[in-house]
Structure formats: structure tokens, C-alpha cells
From TrEMBL:
EC number: 3.6.1.58
Protein name: 8-oxo-dGDP phosphatase NUDT18
Native species: Geotrypetes seraphini (Gaboon caecilian)
UniProt keyword terms in alphabetical order: Hydrolase, Magnesium, Manganese, Metal-binding
UniProt-listed PROSITE patterns: NUDIX, NUDIX_BOX
């Protein structure tokens, strides 16, 4: 990066590289209630692993829980206190299938309301042995490789699109390897890369001007009354603060990266920060070739000049080279 680059351009490069940035103590467009989240009390994180063998078969585990006894599912489970996201994935896969594993990349992030987030990874086995029926315990009855075609009683069909996603990604990866970065955060937050591209492929990115110029960072409202997609609601709240929404169309493209610590912090930090790519276009695309007018005086558009940074952002936008958010 050029030593004379704008502070925002430095942040953009870090985010595009999948790295993390310190989360500020204050947020842009925060919710009315902003309290640190506590794992398994105010927020639930679930990890899920999709492991494939050389034949394209997927690793499955047979449930031991009473409410779904004997059904089959991908190895998955809730994170425990003082775990990183990757540690939770490795533990769940080992307990339920007998295999040790390493994550290849984050495949998808799903959320249901403000308090439940599931992280799905493509992973590969690195050791261990397939859990046999005689090794069954409270975690699972056994594990097996499934061709995802033969009849198999599933606990839920929600895993089928995730298996398909993993197969397609392994055949033709459409986004760079994306893995959690171990940096602390106290709430569920989003660092937002808001872009505007005109017909000539000129590019602008929104920056907050509060303090040092930076990519806007907002946070989710974790109150029980907020039942909609908390991540997208938080982003909508931020954009509404500076752009007249009836005049534009917003598209949440997906996740460029994420950060979480969850352990060994001076202050307990169960939050997670997502770096989210967003595009803004005029509702009437024929009207203007410049970014939407801003109000409120807290944000401004920074035009990104020609170079590798601009090319990288345009490539991520044009091919949707991001991890999808499902809600």
C-alpha cells in the first residue's frame, strides 16, 4: 500500500485481505440498547462443518439426542465459553465423527433473529478414525460418509443447500479463503464497506468522519423484541442515518471477513465483528453518475483512484466474491 494512501484505503486493504481491525469503543449509528453479549446467555453461536472425501461424499453423524434420535446431520453444535470459533468447530467434529479437522474456509453465515448465528465451514479431516457404532456416546451414535443421494433419514433438510454450497466451492472457489481473525469485540457488530459504482466504473466508498476517517462500524440491537435479521437491520439503520433511502437501492453482498476472540482477553469478549460488503445504486439509475447525496455531516464519500485496490473491490462486487449471509 502507498505510504500516502488515505486512512480509509489502508483499512480497505486490510479488510479485503481477510484480516481484522480493532473495533472502536463507540459505534456509528448504534442501537438504543448496546450491552456486551454473553455466550449462551444473550447470544448463541453454532458451528457446522462440511467435510468431503475424494469421492465427493460428505461426512455425517447420527444423532444421539432424544428429540432426533437416529437421524443424520452434519457435525454441528453450540460454541462453549472460552473457545474460539475454530476451536469449537474442531471440537464438535471430533466429538461427533471421530475425525480431527482443519477449516478450509467459512462457507456461509446464517442468523435467526438477533441472538442465534451459525457459522458453516468447509473443512478437511487431518487425523482420527471414523466413529463406529460401538463408539457411540451422548455426542453421536456413529458417523459415516454419505453420497448425498442414497436414502438417509435427515434431522433437517436445511443442510442440503450447505452441502451443495461446499461441493460447488470446492469445484470452483468464488471467494478467497475466509477464516476468523482472533481480535476482541464485545457486541455483534458490522464494519460496513458501502460502495457506489457509476456507469464508467468510477468507485466511491463511504467513510465515517467522526474522529479519524474510518469504515463505518455499527452494532446489532440484541433486545428480544428485535425478531428480524439483526445484521441487516443494523446496516439499514446506519445507511438511513446518512442517505435518503427512498432514493437508493441497497444490496448486502456478503461477508469479506470476521473477527472474534472469546478467550484469553483482559475483558470477556463474546462479540463478533463482520466485515460486510454493500452496494448502493440510485433508484433511478438514469438520473445521476455521482454517489447519493449525504446528510447529517457524519459521513462522506471517498473516491478510490485507479490501482490495485479499486480493481480488487470492483472484482469482489462484480463476481460476488464474498461469503453469503442467510437469514
Amino acid at each position: 500500500m502507498d505510504s500516502e494512501a488515505e486512512p480509509l484505503e489502508v483499512e480497505l486493504q486490510v479488510v479485503l485481505d481477510g484480516r481484522g481491525l480493532p473495533v472502536p469503543d463507540t459505534y456509528d449509528a448504534p442501537p438504543q440498547t448496546l450491552q456486551p453479549v454473553v455466550l449462551r446467555e444473550t447470544v448463541c453461536y453454532v458451528v457446522l462443518g462440511v467435510l468431503l472425501n475424494e469421492r465427493g461424499e460428505v461426512l455425517m453423524m447420527q444423532e444421539a439426542k432424544q428429540d432426533c434420535y437416529g437421524k443424520w446431520y452434519l457435525p454441528a453444535g453450540r460454541m462453549e465459553a472460552n473457545e474460539t470459533i475454530v476451536e469449537a468447530l474442531k471440537r464438535e467434529v471430533k466429538e461427533e465423527t471421530g475425525f480431527e479437522c482443519e477449516p478450509c474456509t467459512l462457507l456461509a453465515v446464517e442468523e435467526r433473529g438477533p441472538c442465534w448465528i451459525r457459522f458453516t465451514f468447509l473443512a478437511e479431516p487431518t487425523g482420527g478414525m471414523l466413529k463406529a457404532i460401538q463408539d457411540g456416546d451422548a455426542e453421536s451414535l456413529q458417523a459415516r460418509w454419505w453420497d448425498h443421494d442414497s436414502p438417509l433419514p435427515l434431522r433437517g433438510k436445511d443442510i442440503l443447500p450447505l452441502i451443495d454450497l461446499a461441493l460447488r466451492y470446492r469445484a470452483n472457489p468464488w471467494h478467497p479463503v475466509t477464516l476468523p481473525q482472533e481480535l476482541p469485540c464485545t457486541v455483534v457488530s458490522q464494519r460496513v464497506v458501502v460502495t457506489f459504482v457509476n456507469s464508467r466504473k468510477d468507485l466511491w466508498v463511504l467513510q465515517s468522519t467522526v474522529g479519524n476517517p474510518h469504515l463505518p462500524v455499527t452494532a446489532c440491537d440484541m433486545t428480544p423484541t428485535e425478531v428480524r435479521s439483526s445484521m441487516k437491520v443494523a446496516i439499514y439503520r446506519l445507511i438511513k442515518q446518512c442517505i435518503l433511502l427512498p432514493q437508493v437501492q441497497l444490496k448486502t453482498c456478503g461477508i469479506l471477513g470476521l473477527q472474534h476472540l472469546g478467550k484469553d482477553a483482559v475483558v470477556k469478549c463474546d462479540g463478533v465483528c463482520f466485515n460486510v460488503l454493500l452496494s448502493v445504486t440510485h433508484a433511478n439509475r438514469c438520473l445521476c453518475d455521482t454517489p447519493p447525496e449525504l446528510h447529517g455531516g457524519l459521513f462522506e464519500w471517498l473516491r478510490i483512484g485507479e490501482g490495485t485496490l479499486k480493481s480488487a473491490i470492483l472484482q469482489r462486487l462484480s463476481t460476488l466474491a464474498v461469503v453469503p449471509i442467510c437469514s
